[in-house]
Sequence to fold (100 residues):
Amino acid sequence: MTTRTTTWLAFSLWIFSALFAAAALTSIVLGVSVGISFFQLGSVLNTVMIAASFSTVGAVVASRRPKNPIGWIMCVGGLGVALGSLTEAYASYLLFSGPD
Fold:
C-alpha cells in the first residue's frame, strides 16, 4: 500500500470512531433529558474518552508509520470501544426511557 492510501485508511477509521463516539454522547444527553440519572450513564462517558484517545493516537501512528502494527491495533481498538459505548448508551436510553 502507498503512504497516501494508509493515511486515508487510518483517518477514515478515526472518523468512524469519532462519529460513533458523538452518537454515544448524543444518547447520553437524550437519556439525561428524559430523566435518567447521569450516574447510570457515567461509564459510557469514560469509554467514549478512551475511544477518542485510542483512535487519535492510532491514526497518527498508523499514518506516519504504516508498517507499525501498534497504530493499526489502536485504530481498530478505538473503533471497537466507540461502537461498544454507542450500543451501551443507546441500550440504557431505551431501557430506562421506555414505558413503565
Q: What stands out?
A: The mean pLDDT is 89. Helices lie at 3-33, 38-64, 69-97. The chain is about 85% helix and 0% strand.
